[in-house]
DNA sequence: TTGTAAGCGTTATCAT
DNA sequence: ATGATAACGCTTACAA
């Protein structure tokens, strides 16, 4: 029964004294990596109990080399997508006996870089960047430099859900087929007969997620010999509110001179959820009057009404793979790049257009 | 431009040599808490740049005292409720210049205790337990002991969304009025005219959240001179699947000998979401045929159809307050206990019963 | 203003 | 099988 010792944390030395052995022996008992006589071990463990001793992880890391710490940096903790990937990261890290540091940058790319530096100070074994990010030449260069810095000290930058930085940036990349998913879902809408498909996206043209999804959307049009009507492409952010507002705006501006859109693709499921709300308010039925699709397949999607047709991402596996590859990179190829598949999940929010405009 | 230095992480000593000063001076420049001549500072900073030096947080913590680390332990990263509280924890910690450690226990109370120990090894300044927990005498005693252990080394156990452990357990408690919220929402259903209200809860009678919410539910009945029909109280877990299954079971067992329930209270919004799905499948309309209410007011609730009547919890504020109190406990009273309010959010899922059974 | 030296708590190395 | 000692990278007296 932990007898309390007044003042301060007990150290191996205190335990050693209490057990009548040397600090070295205590260390050996605790680590269990060296032969110690049974009787001594018992005395030491007894002293550990009595003093309520726990080892100092910082001191151990200082001499032992590794902190056994994995850092993950996400936009927000609350988005279901980030949460699920984070869940995967945390699970795998725990499974590998690591502890998890977590930070959020709320979409601020500079803050993201600061956080990586902070995690370097923390000696994280791996720094996992979750979700898409900025993609400008300057930012990429700074990122590459940071990747090299991490590499130099035996750590590793991991891109999870983001394309590689460049050839000379040592990093582990675990992506999902972002563009392919957008292509597939747009293609599905087109195959249903839709020709005027609005894209409610994010106004961050240099964001990897934004550009990949938009590219998939346009490529699907091209594949069918269609051209995208720019007036149907609007910006915003990744959240529900944005989907709601942008859809309101789209509907308001619909003067009837052009045939209205018959379908809307939201850049995320949260956006799609806002789209559905706006349409419902406008008295439009989904999918009878207009079709809607999203992207991410967050758990919410199945519970919307109508249940949302969307693109599935292997969230958790993405996070798990990121940690697994980073921690065992010697066992894998040097240039680590994993691309996981996405697929369309057909639910109830998309159907053939009321009047098929296909010419 | 960070000239790469081959092999290993540079240390203050390396910087000192490069700048032609002592390690002490480097330390002083970095900490900025001691006068250093402008020219020296410049040379040092230059060397830091050149060597791409970052300080070793572990070593600094070892000598400096604090790790500037806050740990938070949650059931899962994915539940919206936990995520929002975690968001609050992370935000406040960051605002206070702290770094966040996160662990999940998936509802395993023993694992939770292990994790607290792990966080004690990590020298976390505060260990925040998010969400309800087990409440058995043994568990409480172990928890109290851990609270004392943490206290002894200058750390702090923080209970966030869970009642206090006991009088001799030094801990910071930030609760919300769990019982009061359950009372209020049940009271609301009763005031609408419902007399047979099912409770779809969790089969963990010693779980703080379960018991508080169930207690509020029964107290509301008592307050109206009603008695709870035990056959309308079912167990399960906190997730959507449970709500779905339990509701299916309730409907199946409804033989018609007793008047059926006219309303269902889910122990969480996720459960309520499952309840809605089951009712929809059974062809029952909400709230025309049957009313439903939830608890937590997660973002999803507003998007369900019908939009869910539920109990709002100040999620983020809960997390923020937890960290704020823990880190400034000298400035507050010694026995820290904060109780935040909850309130019913009236949406569309509850209405007066079709045939008012009030006698 | 700057430097020297001791020490934080642990483990690895080398003895015994 | 056990112990003494020297690191690990940093800060903080104490000196100069």
Automatic annotation (TrEMBL), chains A, B:
Highest taxon of source: Bacteria
Keyword Membrane: no
Domain HTH lacI-type: residue ranges: 10-64
Coiled coil: none
SMART domains, alphabetized: HTH_LACI (SM00354)
Keywords, alphabetical: DNA-binding, Transcription, Transcription regulation
Pfam families assigned to the protein according to its UniProt record, in alphabetical order: LacI, Peripla_BP_3
InterPro entries the record matches: HTH_LacI, LacI/GalR-like_sensor, Lambda_DNA-bd_dom_sf, Peripla_BP_I
Name the UniProt record assigns to this protein: LacI family transcriptional regulator
Species for this entry: Kribbella aluminosa
């Amino acid at each position: 029964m932990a007898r309390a010792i007044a003042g301060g944390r007990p150290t191996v030395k205190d335990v050693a004294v209490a057990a009548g052995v040397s600090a070295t022996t205590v260390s050996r008992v605790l680590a269990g990596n060296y032969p110690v006589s049974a009787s001594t071990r018992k005395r030491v463990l007894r002293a550990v109990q009595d003093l309520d001793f726990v080892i100092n992880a910082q001191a151990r890391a200082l001499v032992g080399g590794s902190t056994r710490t994995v850092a993950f940096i996400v936009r927000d903790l609350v988005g279901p997508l980030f949460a699920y990937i984070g869940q995967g990261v945390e699970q795998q890290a725990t499974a590998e006996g690591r502890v998890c540091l977590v930070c959020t940058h709320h979409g601020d790319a500079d803050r993201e870089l600061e956080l990586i530096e902070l995690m370097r100070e923390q000696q994280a074994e791996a720094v996992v960047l979750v979700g898409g990010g900025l993609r400008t030449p300057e930012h990429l260069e700074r990122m590459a430099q940071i990747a090299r810095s991490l590499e130099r000290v035996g750590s590793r930058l991991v891109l999870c859900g983001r394309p590689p930085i460049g050839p000379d940036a040592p990093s582990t990349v675990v992506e999902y087929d972002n563009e392919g998913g957008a292509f597939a879902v747009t293609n599905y809408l087109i195959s249903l007969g839709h020709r005027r498909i609005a894209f409610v996206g994010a106004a961050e043209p240099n964001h990897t997620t934004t550009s990949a999804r938009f590219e998939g959307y346009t490529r699907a049009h091209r594949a069918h010999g269609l051209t995208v009507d720019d007036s149907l492409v609007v910006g915003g952010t990744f959240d529900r509110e944005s989907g709601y507002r942008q859809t309101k705006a789209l509907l308001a501006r619909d003067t009837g001179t052009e045939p209205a859109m018959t379908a809307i693709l939201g850049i995320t499921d949260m956006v799609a959820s806002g789209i559905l709300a706006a349409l419902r308010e406008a008295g439009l039925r989904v999918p009878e009057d207009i079709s809607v699709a999203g992207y991410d397949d967050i758990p919410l999607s199945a519970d919307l009404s109508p249940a949302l047709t969307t693109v599935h991402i292997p969230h958790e596996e993405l996070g798990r793979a990121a940690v697994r590859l980073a921690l065992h990179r010697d066992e894998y190829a040097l240039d680590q790049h994993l691309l996981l598949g996405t697929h369309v999940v057909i639910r109830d929010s998309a159907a053939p257009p009321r009047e098929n405009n296909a010419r």
